Amino acid sequence: MENGLESRLNKIKTDFAKMCRTVESMLAAANGLLKNPDKTAAKDIVNKDKLVDEAEMDIENGCMRLLLRNQPFAKDFRDISCILKAITDVERIGDQAADIAGITRSFEKAEDCVPVLKMGELALVMVRGSVNSLLNEDVKLAEKTQALDDEMDGLFDEACTEIIEKIKQNPAFAGTAAELLMIAKYYERIGDHAVNICEWAEFGNTGIHSKHQ
Questions:
Q1: Using CA atoms, how far apart are residues 176 and 58, in angstroms rounded to an integer?
Q2: What does the pLDDT read at residue 108?
Q3: pLDDT of residue 197
Q4: Residues 46, 153: contact at Cβ < 8 Å?
Q5: Concatenated DSSP letters for 115-166?
Q6: Cα 86 from chain centre
Q7: Residue 155 needs a FRET pair 20 to 30 A away by CA distance; which of 8, 76, 188, 209 works?
Q8: How far apart are CA 104 and CA 38, in angstroms?
């Protein structure tokens, strides 16, 4: 029974890792579209989001079956619980990467708004860090990644200030400004999801969730 549990749990972990890497690739590709918009590439990212949604359902079902049939305890229970919680954040990051890609279909480039580009780069670092902290049970990486959220919030404020100033200088920029603000907000939310994943990484190792202390 234990061997069966271990095998099925390893399969879930493998599927979860694959889902995470897919989302990371979506975000990296979406970031690239801010500098070099490409409608075909944007469509590919949007289509990948459907695969992420399917993966979330499969992993969730697998976790529930393990909990109901095998009644795991201690570390195995925490591992399953962490994946069940984290897949929601990973799926939403995929949604937001797809949304960013979709927005790039309607404008030329975002290179004139440096804070937004920096937010995209930082979002990818945070997602990778959070995912790796969970997959590798690395509490220090989780803590380091969570600390980046203050920088993300600062960049968001910078982006808003810069975009508003550009509108004042050129009212015709308003349409592009609205799209850039949406993208900036998506990146800020992605940072929040990365922090959530880090918190579950810590819980998986310590049994303590920072929000529930």
A1: 38
A2: 67
A3: 97
A4: no
A5: HHHHHHHHHHHHHHHHHHHHHTT-HHHHHHHHHTHHHHHHHHHHHHHHHHHH
A6: 10
A7: 209
A8: 8
Nearest-Å Rg of the Cα atoms of the chain is 19
Burial 125-161 (b: 16+ CB within 10 A, else e): bbbbbbbbbbbebbeebbeebbebbeebeebbebbbe
Q: DSSP letters of the chain?
A: -HHHHHHHHHHHHHHHHHHHHHHHHHHHHHHHHHHS--HHHHHHHHHHHHHHHHHHHHHHHHHHHHHHHH---HHHHHHHHHHHHHHHHHHHHHHHHHHHHHHGGG-S--TT-HHHHHHHHHHHHHHHHHHHHHHTT-HHHHHHHHHTHHHHHHHHHHHHHHHHHHHHH-GGGHHHHHHHHHHHHHHHHHHHHHHHHHHHHHHHHHS--GGG-
* pLDDT single digits (tens) 129-167: 999 999 999 999 999 999 999 999 999 999 999 999 999
CB-CB contact of 164 with 157 (8 Å): no
Positive or negative: CA dihedral 87, 181, 119, 45: positive
Q: pLDDT by residue (tens digit) across 165-181?
A: 999 999 988 888 899 99
For residue 202, give the amino acid letter: E
